């Protein structure tokens, strides 16, 4: 069975994409969240990034030609921005860490 024909791969891709879209829509209101809402948003984003990292690792470990091609296409697209997939994840994590630090600061008056 081809990598992309796997029910597991298809289901997780749909869930990841759907969860990401919902989180981005919710994130547009991030500035209006209270401290606990911001914490929950960051935790949910971290969970999603973890799931995405695992999903991409499946592609990298697969022997399927289409999966390998997908990984190479991602690497090519990111290289146009001067980064690797690993750097992309590092930047996402750094952004989430900055967001965490901001909500830990006492409110300025």
UniProtKB/TrEMBL annotation:
Pfam families for this protein: DUF1825
Annotated protein name in UniProt: DUF1825 domain-containing protein
Species whose genome carries this gene: Parasynechococcus marenigrum (strain WH8102)
Lineage per the UniProt record: Bacteria, Bacillati, Cyanobacteriota, Cyanophyceae, Synechococcales
């Amino acid at each position: 069975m081809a990598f992309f024909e796997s029910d597991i791969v298809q289901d997780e891709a749909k869930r990841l994409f759907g969860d990401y879209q919902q989180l981005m829509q919710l994130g547009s209101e991030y500035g209006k969240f209270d401290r606990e809402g911001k914490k929950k948003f960051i935790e949910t984003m971290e969970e999603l990034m973890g799931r995405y990292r695992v999903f991409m690792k499946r592609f990298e470990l697969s022997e399927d030609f289409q999966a390998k091609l997908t990984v190479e296409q991602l690497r090519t697209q990111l290289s146009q921005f001067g980064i690797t997939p690993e750097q992309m994840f590092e930047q996402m994590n750094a952004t989430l860490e900055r967001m965490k630090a901001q909500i830990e600061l006492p409110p300025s008056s």
